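Changelog-adjacent note: as of this version, every example in the card shows the full chain rather than a window. The one below runs 324 residues end to end.
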Amino acid sequence: MKSNDIFHRFLNAYSSFTLTSHLNPDADAIGSVAAMYRYLKMKGKQVRVALDVQVPLNLRFLLQGIPVIHLGTQNYQEQSQAVIVLDCSNKRRTFFEENCEIWQKKVLNIDHHQDNTRFGHENILDFNASSTGEMLFDLCYEGRESFTAEIAEAIYAAVIGDTGGFRYANTSAKVLNSAALLLDYGLDVSFLNKQVLEKTTKKALGLISEALSTVKFYQDIATMQVDHTMLQRHQIEPKELPELVNYIRSIEGVDIAVLYLEPEQGLTKVSLRSQPHLDISTVARYFGGGGHKNAAGCKITGEFLENISKVNQQLSTLERADKT
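Full-length structure tokens:
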């Protein structure tokens, strides 16, 4: 059965839905959830949104007017007939435990990550898509009346988040054609690009300056470190930080960029980026994480510097392919 048929059959089968995505949601996750919420409401459905409490400040505008259950701040009770999980490769990347009642409902899994475990009762997967936002455009767009301006804005934000504003290798002619149709809804592209890709705070700027002083180079690898004491010193929460790894990914001669972040003592969050000829997701999966070929991540418990050493060692064994 075609993806569009699966999608619309699932939506037509139920009157109430819960939407969720992965921990530490990014622009693709938040934009996709916001777009799906507004699309379902337009169809007359009852919709709940359940997200990690760590929603980045620069993306909260996408959720304006959307009631959100912030997981981690209150107990969760599933009250919908069905669940749609967006932009998430497996159950472990959500906030919900394996035995949570949410998994007893019918689950539609919509995702573009290559390591997706097909955990849904229905799975719509497109590993060639730049983003889940692009997938939602394909699933929902049937002409000018398909979207409202708010839906178009959310999908556009999702797409530019995962394509880096159409700068990454996953930008295709199809993506650009879809974006052109979204612009017909009168989007403020300047605002969206600045808000999603560039917005930062004065506190974050101070930390960025210190973080840049930690940059180290190992042949074709560049690393940056932000430990817990740095966060405390600048009185900043991890959700307030921009994509710090992007500050080092474009340095001449760098094929792999790594950010080591210690959001709390005993936990290391690793963000990995690579040039198109390298598959960095294998390293993320080695440590229990996942992601895309050129953008992946993982979380590791233990002492910060020891975790850095472990990941650096694994990176040194990564097979290098020819730059073609």
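Structural remarks: The chain has two domains: 3-197, 202-316.
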